[in-house]
Amino acid sequence: MYNVTDVRVNYLHNPVGISGKIQIGWILGSDKKNVVQTSYQIQITRDMDFDNPVYDSGVCASDESAHVTVEGMVWESACKYDLRVRSVNNYLEMSDWSIPVFFIAALQNTDEWIGEFVSAETEEDKDNSKGTYVRKAFVLKGRIKSAFVLSTALGIYHLFVNGRKVGDDEFAPGWTSYHNRLLYQTYDVTDYLQDGRNAIGAMLGAGWYKGVMGFKRYNNHYGMQTAFACQIMITYEDGTSEIIVSDSTWKGSDSPVIFSEIYDGEIYDANKEIDGWDTVSFLDESWKSVAVVPFSKNTLVPQNGSTVKEITAIPAQRIFKTKQGDTVIDFGQNLTGWIHFKVKGKAGDKVELNCFEVLDSEGNVYLDNLRSAKETVVYICKDDREAQYHPYFSFQGFQYAKISSWPGEPDISDFTAHAVHSDMEETGTFTCSNPDLNQLQHNIKWGMKGNFLDIPTDCPQRDERLGWTGDSQIFCRTASYIMNTYTFFSKWLRDLEADQTPEGGVAHVVPDILTGKVDDDRLLKDGTHSAAAWGDAAVINPWTLYLTFGDKSVIENQYESMKGWIGFMQNHAVDGIWNYQLQFGDWVALDAEEGSYFGATPNDLTCTAYYAYSTGLFAKMAAVVGNKEDAEKYGSLYNEIVKGYQAHFFDKNGILTAQTQTAHILSLYFNLVPDAYIEKTVAGLLRLLDKEGGHLVTGFVGTPYFCHALSQNGHIREAYDLLLKEDFPSWLYQVKMGATTIWEHWDGLRPDGTMWSPDMNSFNHYAYGAIGEWLYRVAAGIEIDEKNPGYKHSILYPHIGGNLDYVDASYNSVYGPVSVNWSCNENEVTLKASVPHNTTADIILDQATRVTDAAGLDFARIGNNLSAIAGSGDYVIRFIK
Ligand code: BGC
Asked: What whole-number distance in Å separates Cα of residue 302 and Cα of residue 181?
């Protein structure tokens, strides 16, 4: 048995919005071991007519099954293509053709976009965050074969055709650097249309485009009016085609959404509902004509995946009364999304829910850490029939909601929380024998679910929710184990580039809504771009995607952006030491002065360490894409920076001048320590750890690499000890305090019940969840081989320790699942490992003295370990430690 399954285009199942080159990947199934593909064939066709393919690769001798590029094809705009693959392996078995998958091509040229941006608002509405409707009825000329709507908005929109919402996307078109890149969505509406008359319409809200964003509460960041644009691309059965577009003949009206904003919530008056507004029978004579809003169509880019959706539903766990007498719903999980409720009242009755994250030490409603964000949802009933509702254009970060107003007695079954985030396949699983660690993994994943809502945000609740680059960089590797982040980060990185300064500086937040809008903010008045560890997202995130997927096109796409950022640092470095305006340093580290956000590690050191790290990565990536000149140039720049770093930050005795945990961690993890000083530096780190009673006092910069700095230098026991600390400050301290997500501050909630100042105290901030990658990479030992990335060759090197009886983890790679399960009985270890077909792995047995069952593999000793090269298949290995 040999088969091809799980065929993907651009790492996605059946994607829409495709233009230009595509990359195809598939998974090979076989009951044999050591399976390697020797050739493949791909066919692409229309209408499932594989006898007449539009593309046939022919038989290609190749072992590549993950990023097979089809280039030079001109797809027809708004057209569905079917694709199938077959493969031959080293046993000379030929698979059947795979089950066909499809992709839908977007417009292939921007100048094909003719729909106008139409608005039911005027400029007078600039400070009004109400919702509006736009609509149009149209007549089809005959029977249709296919129809696609390409649509987008200035603001947020929901699309309706003949009374039905199209698709299940939320918060479309997402948040991008709108003036440079506005995404449009592609929907197959063939089944929504009917012969003759049809109606199309959209509901619009302010969203990121014109609503309030940023803690200075500026609105109208991109424009003053919401607007909708679309074109319906129709192919008739007789082969003719027609394009129906949004234009000045559309009609507009206010909608029942009286107010809606990202931070403050939504007010919906059901009395203002307009029955049947999106159907053909509706008479829109009384509606006003829309205004056509100028907006450059050159900015339009097809969205090709990871749209935001309602992903997980959680029923209310309890409704209770606080000491202060408030009625509160508890969902038992801190999350991002909304409360879906059903309500029965009389006309004019009001529902008001105030969402929030935590109770105070007395068990009362705590709103202070939301800062100015109101997170309030109001619904006004129109009659005594049961109604159901959740916000259209706003999301909340919450575990609790205070019921400030409700007709009658609320019942627990009236409320369900919906986690809303970018739709990404879950790729990673990790469980072990320690329930607290499992809860930590849960919290990390929910931190991700809470902050991957179209862009990687810092937090989802207060008046921020911005694409802080540093947070995303720190968490990128962990995120890329947990879910398929390919499209999500690729999209965001294009915006990062779009918002770079002409000199290559990287905005602190992407999309950048801070530049020019920070007034006298005590921090940001000193700069809104280019901080170490933040700006380095420009390089580290593409590198992480390259490692995870083995995909070179990320490097190609981000090449100039990365180079720009390195150039920026180089321009501002003095004698190889770089520093620039506002730096966040080791943000919110506990070695900061009382009440300060800035950790004790000097900025010169953090900046230069990242300058070296990013430059080194860029030199490697230049080599990967065959740019020898840059590889050499940046390779020598890297060497120079490292030399400068060593001269500047180590004293003549080989001691780091900055005696902080983070200075040691960065120096070790980034390989900045001269060989002769490595032992001393490790000893220094252990001493600093000891000084804190085995606790970390690191912030955003040092924390992600702490355990790596220990385990890579022979201190796996200390790494596990640190990971498993349960008292303050530690990862498991949060778990013990009942956290269901990751906190922004180690001392968000202190042992004495007090909290860190409400001006910056999020309970859903994924940054410290960056420990997640250590669990996958080291505890489970599912590691990527930099020289053969994307798991084409894996390094399976589980580290036994932490008093764990077992660890069970898997990652669904582009070649299929890589998994490790180790269990330990006294000194005897059983290791089960799966290596996907068409890949290989080094299997390394941690501190093995003797192998009792080698599962047919040939183990050789390397230092304290035994190691074997494995082809594809499942292995059960037993060894004595
Ligand atoms: C955010 C952080 C961010 C930081 C910059 C904060 O307000 O919430 O996560 O990285 O500012 O230092």
From this structure: 10
| Cα(468) to centroid(ligand 1), Å | 6
Q: Which amino acid is at 581?
A: Q
Closest ligand 1 atom to Cα of 588: 12
Question: What pLDDT score was predicted for residue 759?
Answer: 87
Tell me which of 213, 459, 462, 471 to substitute to probe ligand 1's pocket, judged by most ligand atoms within 8 Å of the beta carbon: 471
Distance from the CA of 285 to the center of ligand 1, in angstroms?
50
Distance of CA 706 to the CA centre of its chain: 23
Ligand 1 midpoint to CA 526 (Å)? 15
Report which protein residue has its CA nearest ligand 1's atom 4. Answer: 468
8 Å CB contact between 610 and 533: yes
CA-nearest of 804, 811, 805 to 781 is 811
pLDDT at 110: 84
Among residues 215, 221, 160, which one has the least CA distance to residue 193? 160
Contact 151, 138 (CB under 8 A): no
Kindly state the tokens that stand for 592.
Answer: 């900061």
- pLDDT computed for residue 756 by the predictor: 87
Shortest-distance Cα residue to atom 11 of ligand 1:
468
In which residue are the tokens 């192998």 written? 851
From residue 453, give the alpha-carbon distance in Å to each of 66, 242, 538, 583, 750.
27, 35, 20, 26, 29
3-class SS at 170? Answer: strand
pLDDT of residue 718: 98
Residues 614-653, buried b or exposed e (16+ Cβ, 10 A)? bbbbbbbbbebeebeebbeebbebbeebbebbbeebbeee
Write down the pLDDT at residue 520. Answer: 87
Atom of ligand 1 nearest to the CA of 470: 10
Cross-strand bridge partners of residue 252: 134, 288
Q: Find the residues whose C-beta lies inside 6 A of ligand 1.
A: 458-459, 464, 468, 470-471, 584, 587, 760, 765
Q: Which helix (H) or strand (E) holds 441?
A: helix 435-451
Dihedral over alpha carbons 866, 868, 873, 878 (to 10 degrees): -20
Give the distance (Å) from ligand 1 centre to CA of residue 429: 28
| Residues with catalytic roles | 464, 744
pLDDT tens per residue, range 243-252: 999 999 999 9
